[in-house]
Design brief:
Structural class: alpha/beta
Number of strands: 19
Oligomer: single chain
Distance between the termini: 93 Å
Bound molecules: thiamine diphosphate, magnesium ion
Strand content: 15-25%
Low-confidence stretches: 1-7
Mean pLDDT: 96
């Protein structure tokens, strides 16, 4: 009793104070940011504990890069910045790849890193994990900020949120020096210093003249094509996009992560006639798709000889004319732009010439028919087509599942073979073709959507984030990983002719990745035939238990670099 009486005035005093730790938590909560992906350590360990205690979901990873990829894709899925939390220098650097990846892919993300003492870092006196993180981050993101005073936390987080999601979304770095966390201030003043970001990503309405110009060009086309990019998927303007495409009657080509915006089985989908529509189209409307390497920069062999006119719909004005002339730029947010286009089409909008739509459909049907028997093969060892034929059916039967996909052959073939039926269900390597997104994206997909996740992984690709299977087991997430194990990168058959070391592209033969999952209490299965694979994936999807299936693929089945082998430089000397 006496003790409590003595403590009372102290506790009352404490109630009037807040500190950096709590202000950061309160600022995130105020803005609806309630999930943090990270790795603990000095100076953010207690912050993670307190955030958890205050009701935030704080998911601890085994490596910051994977936490960063999780945050980045969370941003893509939710249109709110995904939060990645790391320690200073090495942890920060581990998270930086994901920050750069988020910026390149236009995913909103905030990398929050603790940092060492400014006065020591700036004099380069060798502090614990010393690094001028703000300077390093600046070149890799849309914006980078540092908060030095507890009273500025509200503004700092508000600026980070707005920078990440407004205009073209991207990565933002927020530097929080160790001293900031413990800084104390009056609680009421602290509360008042917080900022709730109003209308973080304001609509950007396109100019009416740009809409008219675009529709005029589109109407004049004999062989029009619409290309949907992942910006269109991000926009969550699914109904407007579907109505616009259907009202126009124009064949559409989805980029990888735009698959499912309209089903791949839709009558207008030209996915299976990609080379034909790129070559033969005369007017191409890009919606949230950039003319980067993935579209051969809009020129060259892939685009054929016929002259082309490009219409581009994008939120970023600088995107226009980036590679070729854009005759009808439409600048604004995708939702507003597509709605305006739709509103601008009168009831008598002419269908594109039947000769064109018929030709596209014929090519598509021909390719689909050609592929069909290969997808039904029951070969042992499995080839890519036999294994992917099974997964294709599983996604057809479970269109709500989220497909995560990385690898070379495993990526390129899965992209072509597995039809998607709903928006934002296919999450893959993005603009850079980066390996290592697999487990981070799978975890975030499960956490953010609550839907089952099927991660289709090359054995090399999986290795970049493989340790996160422990994270998947720890949080008991409904993730089924299928590893296309062909003993290596591209193929498992390479031989080093010059010495005893294995060739650079091959791994341990017959590796059993399924045992990794068992080590952490998950389900491991070794599947050697399409039938075994089908049973194991269905069981995993039904049970929701963390599962890893080692799918044994013929080591000779793949090709160098999958579909992009042409990008490999060649030595003239080798050909002598
Ligand atoms: C971060 C990163 N490092 C390296 C690469 C180069 N790379 C492209 S695909 C690939 C792995 C391909 O092998 P695998 O995942 O086993 O797929 P497979 O073709 O064998 O099915 C690698 C290492 C990359 N894309 N990203
Ligand atoms: Mg492989």
């Amino acid at each position: 009793m006496a003790e409590a009486a003595v403590k009372k005035p102290e506790a009352a005093e404490e109630q009037d104070l807040t500190d950096g730790f709590h202000l950061i938590i309160d600022a995130l909560k105020l803005n609806g940011l309630t999930t943090i992906y990270g790795v603990p350590g000095i100076p953010i360990t207690d912050f993670g504990r307190m955030a958890q205690a205050e009701g935030l979901r704080v998911l601890s990873f085994r490596h910051e890069q994977n936490a960063g990829y999780a945050a980045a894709i969370a941003g893509f899925l939710t249109k709110k910045p995904g939060i990645c939390l790391t320690v200073s220098a090495p942890g920060f650097l581990n998270g930086l790849t994901a920050l750069a990846h988020a910026t390149t892919n236009c995913y909103p993300m905030i990398l929050i890193s603790g940092s060492s003492e400014r006065e020591v870092v700036d004099l380069q006196q060798g502090d614990y994990e010393e690094m001028d993180q703000l300077a390093v981050a600046k070149t890799m993101c849309k914006a980078a900020y540092r908060v030095l005073h507890a009273a500025d936390i509200g503004i700092g987080i508000a600026r980070a949120i707005r920078s990440a999601v407004s205009g073209r979304p991207g990565g933002v770095y927020l530097d929080l020096p160790a001293k900031l966390f413990g800084q104390v201030m009056d609680a009421e003043k602290g509360r008042k210093s917080l900022v709730k970001v109003i209308d973080a990503a304001p609509a950007q309405i396109p100019a009416p003249a740009s809409i008219k110009r675009a529709l005029d060009v589109l109407k004049s086309a004999k062989k029009p094509l619409i290309i949907l990019g992942k910006g269109a998927a991000y926009a969550q303007a699914d109904e407007a996009i579907k109505s616009f495409v259907e009202k126009s009657g124009i064949p559409f080509l989805p980029m990888s992560m735009a698959k499912g915006l309209l089903p791949d089985t839709h009558a207008q989908c030209a996915g299976a006639a990609r080379s034909t529509v790129l070559k033969d189209s005369d007017v191409v409307m890009l919606i949230g798709a950039r003319l980067n390497w993935l579209l051969s920069h809009g020129k060259g062999k892939a685009w054929g000889e016929a002259p082309k006119k490009f219409i581009q719909v994008d939120i970023e004005p600088k995107e226009m004319d980036s590679n070729v002339e854009i005759v009808a730029p439409v600048v604004g947010d995708i939702g507003s732009c597509v709605q305006a286009l739709l509103d601008g089409m009168d009831a008598k909008w002419p269908a594109p010439p039947a000769e064109w739509t018929g030709a596209v459909k014929a090519k598509r049907d021909e390719n689909v028919t050609k592929m069909a028997p290969r997808l039904m093969n029951n070969n042992v060892p499995m080839d890519y087509h036999g294994a992917l034929g099974v997964l294709r059916t599983i996604i057809k039967e479970r269109p709500d599942a989220i497909l995560v996909n990385e690898g070379a052959n495993t990526l390129d073939l899965a992209r072509g073979i597995i039809d998607m039926y709903k928006p934002r269900k296919r999450l893959d390597v993005g603009t850079w073709g980066i390996m290592g997104i697999g487990m981070g994206q799978a975890i975030a997909a499960a956490v953010e959507t609550g839907k089952p996740v099927l991660a289709v992984e090359g054995d090399s690709a999986f290795g970049f984030s493989g340790m996160e299977v422990e994270t998947i087991c720890r949080y008991n997430l409904p993730v089924c990983i299928v590893i296309f194990n062909n003993d290596g990168i591209y193929r498992g058959t390479d031989v080093n002719k010059a010495g005893a070391d294995p060739a650079t592209t091959v791994f341990v033969k017959g590796a059993r990745y399924d045992k990794m999952m068992e080590a952490f209490g998950g389900v491991g299965v070794n599947a050697t035939s399409p039938d075994e694979l089908k049973r194991a994936v269905n069981a995993a999807m039904d049970s929701g238990k963390p599962t890893l299936i080692n799918a044994v693929i013929d080591p000779a089945a793949g090709s160098e670099s999958g579909r992009i082998g042409n990008l490999n430089p060649q030595s003239a000397l080798k050909k002598k």
